[in-house]
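Let's study my pick:
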Amino acid sequence: MICIEVAHSLPYRLRLRFKPALQMHHAFGIQTELSSAYPDLPLRLWGLGQGIIIGNGTYPLDPNLVSDIAKIINNPVDYVPSWRDRIIHTLMILAILGWALPVLPGTPFFLIALALRPKRP
């Protein structure tokens, strides 16, 4: 079971810390579930799976949000990467190998991976 600690709380922002820290596929699964359950709620992961930040400092948060989020977090679904995520990961590996090995050029793979990243709103 995951212990959830409120690390920082403001009326417009909430930072939750997970103990123990989550593996990244669990953290992405939780982020995906929260995004689908609360599509208008701005949230992002922080600290490589150590926690999640909810809110962007603009709109006040619902006080019952922590209990709803705790229910979702304690029943996580693993994140299944899309084909786009897999391609980006593969291209980044090829770019790193290209910079490390003089035979394989790395810059084109890096630029293609950057072009495939999703646009931020």
Summary: Helices lie at 24-37, 65-73, 83-100, 107-116. The radius of gyration is 18 Å.
